[in-house]
Design a protein that fits this description.
The chain is built from 2 helices and no strands. With 62 residues, it is an all-alpha fold. The longest helix has 34 residues.
Length: 62
């Protein structure tokens, strides 16, 4: 898969959007679910940025 970083960013953004739509004030479990989805989305975005920066550095040296 060539554009794995783009897919990772898209999935991460979708997870963040889904987490913002969960009404966490209704129960503790929904709050936990919201935090987990938000955390996974943030980690995915950070990993995608890291991969983008890492691959950009290789192209400059070649």
């Amino acid at each position: 898969m060539k554009n794995r970083t783009g897919v990772m960013v898209a999935v991460s953004i979708i997870l963040i959007i889904i987490s913002s739509q969960i009404p966490s004030y209704q129960s503790k479990m929904l709050g936990v679910l919201q935090q987990l989805l938000l955390g996974l989305g943030m980690i995915g975005c950070l990993l995608a940025v890291w991969k983008f920066m890492k691959s950009g550095g290789k192209k400059k040296n070649s």
